[in-house]
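[job 4471] stage=fold_predict status=RUNNING
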Amino acid sequence: MDDDALTRALIHALRERRDSFEAPDGRRYSRQDMQARLRELIAADLIVMRTCSLSAAIVVAAPHVSFDNWTQYYANRVAPALQAGEVLARNFRDEDGSKIPVSIGRHLHVNRPTESERRGGREFESDRARAVHADYIGALVQAGGKAPLDLLIELHGHHRHTVLEAATTGISEAEARVILDAYRAATGNQTGSPELHIEPLHELRYAARSAKELGSLRDSVCRRALHLELPRQCRDTAANREAFQPILTEWLRSCMTMFEMAA
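[job 4471] inference complete, writing structure tokens
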């Protein structure tokens, strides 16, 4: 049985809630063994896709690929368009709905030094979570070219409501109003574009508190940050992605111009 076939068989066994699985080679796996072997077969990795070519240190990052589905799609297009650095973190979180549709005991949050025992579970710090987070911060600095970054744009995804949420670091209320106006200009009231809620103007459902206190949104990591939670309708179909990606890119470009960070 090759690795791909074994991966499929182990995932199937876990989805059927089996306590054990016997492979064709005679090896018997307990549930814990199945999870451990899948962690080996489905590698988690951090990738610096490109480095920033601007005078300002700007990085676009997707730390939850592909748990937050299609954030890599946006990062791969927005970062080069802005000449920003790009960082991807893949397969650190269980149950992404496709490649890891079951729990394999690896739910590391990457952009803060915590993990959970299950999706949506209580966060706690651990040695492995701290190590992964330190590597992530190192990748951000490598992609940006210095620390702290001038601007970190983190891409996430949610499915709880239809609003695009922007948790922030280093953004004043006056700046947030300009950013909101720029977003409305970029969308042009286009049908299907989500409404933007941004700190400190709005109270958010996803305020990224742990990342602000412990992780990548600390001011020692970045002077300014936009932690974007893209709603499902921006990610669920090719047509929606193709329609929203240029809007997102031009809006972020206008933000860079406002901060005097554009090329």
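[job 4471] summary: The longest strand covers residues 58-65.
[job 4471] exit 0
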